[in-house]
Structure formats: structure tokens, C-alpha cells
Amino acid sequence: MVICRCGFQTVIRTSHTDANPGRQFHCCPRQGTRGCGFVAWVIPPICPMCSELLAKLDRTTSMNEDVGRKLFAEKKKTESSIFHKLDEVFHIHNDQVIRCN
């Protein structure tokens, strides 16, 4: 049951527009100037196979996000290590340059 902003149970109508031919929608039962103008598309039920595919896609997406987070953390750690080594080399080089003078 869908309730409009007026507090009434909506009615289901069918669109006859070029953009949404045959698509059903909920709307306020008090059409015209008295109605609240509420409109919401009816979402058709998903077939069992599509539902299963969506669940697998969601699990795969979650796994890929976890892998991405781990790779990003490892990249940051590697960058930090590289910058630390470069800093050490730079300081060693500067110390040698100073000693040579």
C-alpha cells in the first residue's frame, strides 16, 4: 500500500506518454487542484534469476571493494617506504657532499 502526501491510499494508473508507454505509476486519488500531486513509479517484481544475479553482483562488488582497499593501503605503505629510503639516500648524499668540501 502506498500513501500520498494527502494521507490517502494511492491509485495505480498507466502512462500513455511517449517516454513511458504502458508504465504504471501510483498517484494521488484526488486529481486536479485538490490533489497533492504525488507520483511514484510502480516497480515491477524481479524474476528469481535476476534476483540471484543481483545478489552475486553485490557480493562480487563487495569483494572487489575489499581488495581495492587492501591494495590502496599496500600502495600507501610502499610509497611511504620508498620516500623514507629516498630521504635516507638524500641525507647520506648531503653528508658526503659536505665532507668532501
Automatic annotation (TrEMBL):
<dbReference type="InterPro" id="IPR010666">
    <property type="entry name" value="Znf_GRF"/>
</dbReference>
<keyword id="KW-0862">Zinc</keyword>
<dbReference type="Pfam" id="PF06839">
    <property type="entry name" value="Zn_ribbon_GRF"/>
</dbReference>
<keyword id="KW-0413">Isomerase</keyword>
<keyword id="KW-0863">Zinc-finger</keyword>
<feature type="domain" description="GRF-type">
    <location>
        <begin position="4"/>
        <end position="45"/>
    </location>
</feature>
<protein>
    <submittedName>
        <fullName>DNA topoisomerase transcription factor GRF family</fullName>
        <ecNumber>5.6.2.1</ecNumber>
    </submittedName>
</protein>
<dbReference type="GO" id="GO:0008270">
    <property type="term" value="F:zinc ion binding"/>
</dbReference>
<dbReference type="GO" id="GO:0003917">
    <property type="term" value="F:DNA topoisomerase type I (single strand cut, ATP-independent) activity"/>
</dbReference>
<keyword id="KW-0479">Metal-binding</keyword>
